[in-house]
Specification:
Blueprint: H1 5-10, H2 15-24, H3 32-52, E1 62-66, E2 72-74, H4 75-88, E3 94-99, E4 106-107, E5 117-125, E6 136-144, H5 154-157, E7 164-172, E8 176-181, E9 187-192, E10 197-202, E11 213-215, H6 226-236, E12 247-248, H7 254-264, E13 267-270, H8 283-296, E14 300-302, E15 322-325, H9 327-337
Parallel strand pairs: 3-5, 11-12, 11-13
Antiparallel strand pairs: 1-2, 3-4, 5-6, 6-7, 7-8, 8-9, 9-10, 13-15, 14-15
Bound molecules: 2,5-anhydro-1,6-di-O-phosphono-D-glucitol (AHG) and manganese (II) ion (2 copies).
The site of 2,5-anhydro-1,6-di-O-phosphono-D-glucitol has 13 residues, from strand 5 and helix 7.
Length: about 350
């Protein structure tokens, strides 16, 4: 009873209300964002329902094909992929979609109206971890279309990341979280499963300027170029003032590794190497949306040389190296990679 009124009120900030209030503050808003984010949050709940019963209904196991990036596809990836598509195809706000699991564009069926936005998504990031009950996620990115009307085209999809108008991700973990930004900070919501609502739990997330955690698949060490190796040796070397050695943490689900980096600071790296010069992660589905989020939280994202959001994509499933996290950490990484340190 003695709690201040504001504290009580903030507990009732649902995702839906947050989106609607955000839109209301823009006089020219059309309600499209509310529609899009509402569709995505519904899809997330449907995917979560399947993820939580994955071990029970024997839904896991490989299908007999691999995805377009050459990875093995698990059934849950397909379920998430289809669920998101079906939750979004009839909203009237999208002109085209693209998903990491599909080689070409996902058209909006002719019998639904075509809107002004483009949705690009990684339906189930980290799905290789599901058998071990490790956190997985859905990552999404929204652009405004560049073609005037009708069906969206590749031109609408292949836009540089700085043109995103919204991005976010959902984490399927001990609790389910939905984080998003529409260019006014990053806000995180946790699902209250008893009422089926996402409640504001992390308002206006700010990433620390510098952290003391690094996250990289160090099993690839011998494939890295000497500058990358020297950078990681630096992170592991002793220096009290700089809180080194850094702690190493690597889950192997980008969404989860990124989320920890966002909250605690530090750096996540997926460099290019001798075998894969552009690394493993995909620019459109993974790097762009997370780069948008990290910048909105005061951090930075680079491919080692340039800002991720400035890269002009040439193809749908393009890969790029990723160095993302605290702004000072990303700057130091760039200095090492450029041979300046
Ligand atoms: P996805 O499951 O969407 O194909 O993504 C897998 C990605 C990413 O989640 C993770 O960070 C990375 O693969 C891990 O790669 P390594 O196993 O090479 O470390
Ligand atoms: Mn992924
Ligand atoms: Mn995926």
């Amino acid at each position: 009873m003695d709690q201040p009124r504001t504290a009580l009120v903030s507990k009732f900030m649902t995702l839906e209300r947050h989106i609607i209030e955000g839109e209301r503050s823009h006089p020219d808003a059309t309600g499209a964002f509310s529609g899009l984010l509402h569709g995505l949050s519904l899809a997330a709940k449907l995917v979560w329902r399947e993820v939580t019963k994955a071990g029970l209904v024997n839904i896991l196991g490989m299908t007999d094909h691999v995805n377009v990036s050459g990875d093995e596809v698990k059934k849950l990836d397909e379920f998430a992929d289809e669920t998101i598509y079906r939750a979004m195809d009839h909203t009237g706000h999208l002109c085209v979609m693209a998903s990491e699991e599909n080689e070409s564009l996902l058209n909006i069926p002719d019998h639904y109206s075509h809107g002004n936005y483009v949705l690009i998504y990684d339906p189930l990031d980290g799905s290789g971890n599901i058998d071990a009950n490790v956190t997985v996620g859905t990552i999404f990115s929204v652009f405004k279309r560049v073609t005037p009307s009708g069906k969206g085209t590749m031109e609408d999809i292949l836009q540089p990341g700085y043109k995103q108008v919204a991005a976010g991700y959902v984490l399927f973990s001990s609790s389910m979280m939905f984080l998003y930004s529409t260019g006014h900070g990053v806000h995180g919501f946790t699902l209250d499963p008893t009422v089926g609502e996402f409640l504001l739990s992390h308002e206006n997330i700010r990433i620390p300027k510098r952290g003391a955690i690094y996250s990289v698949n160090e099993g690839n060490f011998n494939r890295w170029d000497p500058n990358m190796r020297r950078y990681v040796e630096y992170l592991k070397s002793e220096c009290k003032e700089e809180k080194r050695p850094y702690a190493a943490r690597y889950i192997g689900s980008l969404a989860a590794d990124f989320h920890r980096t966002l909250l605690y600071g530090g750096i996540y790296c997926y460099p290019g190497d001798m075998k894969n010069p552009d690394g493993k992660l995909r620019l459109m589905y993974e790097n762009n949306p997370l780069a948008y989020i990290v910048e909105q939280a005061g951090g930075a994202a680079s491919d080692g040389k340039r800002r991720i959001l400035d890269i002009v994509p040439e193809k749908l499933h393009q890969r790029s190296p990723l160095f993302i996290g605290s702004s000072e950490d990303v700057k130091i990484a760039e200095e090492f990679l450029g041979g300046k340190r």
